[in-house]
Description:
Blueprint: E1 10-11, E2 25-30, E3 33-36, H1 44-50, E4 58-64, E5 67-72, E6 83-86, H2 96-114, E7 125-127, E8 134-136, E9 142-143, E10 148-157, E11 160-166, E12 176-179, H3 186-198, E13 202-213, E14 218-227, E15 240-247, H4 260-269
Parallel strand pairs: 2-5, 10-14
Antiparallel strand pairs: 1-4, 2-3, 3-6, 4-5, 7-8, 8-9, 10-11, 10-12, 11-15, 13-14
Amino acid sequence: MFQDIQPHVLKNQNDQQRAPRAGDYILIGRQQQVLLMNGTLPKYEDVDADYAFSPDQYQYLLAVDQAAFFWVDVDAVANDNYTVGTTQGFRDLTPAWLAFSSATAAHLAWWYDTKRFCGHCGQPLHPGATERSLVCAACGQTIYPTIMPAIIVGVTNGDKILMTKFLSGYNHFSLISGYTEIGETFEDTVRREVFEEVGLEVHNIRYFGSQPWAPSHSLLAGYFADLNENVAIELETDELSKAQWFQRDQIPHNDTNTSLTWTMIEAFRHHQEK
Length: 274
């Protein structure tokens, strides 16, 4: 899956901070718009030659092996050497380890970018001294990186799996998904989302796997669940355009990415669901 970057090692500990050096990657921009060089993140040696950023403008994010990722908090403005791109496209970078680490670094940069002021008293937030946090010196409020838990569920009925299509955006078949509400277990979310989106009830809910998904700032938990009763689908049309049952040998091959969704779909196709 997207996060499987072995033999490379993600180092996201906050105590790994250091100054940037040659070979490091730099995210320059705000609101998920960043500068790119030749379609990928520029390295420190190029940025240092082209810009006069001070040392304290480089916010350490994380590292993979010996290469660190930093964020520079300025607007992304294209020029002769740099284009402006969106962090949503990082999932398509190559090699795979760079795609995952760039997307994860962008998740952290987005958090810093959108959490500048205390939500309680409105005063500026500052990085915590001992952990990955932002702290308000005025009222003591402490916040941690935003990670939104969500579920993906493969609803099965014997040798059939229920696949859906969104109303807009991602236009391939996928699986039912949704964010976990306050007070819910993941299993509660599975039951609620299935009923809300297609009007069906499920049982035998079983865990498949998880995935950090930086493009939506989420942590995804994947489940399979069996259909209670073979009744008609009642499609929720605010978010979905289609819901359709597929036999294992009729499941479409319409996505090649490394998402948890399609890992689950392929597992079902090959009788490898848990």
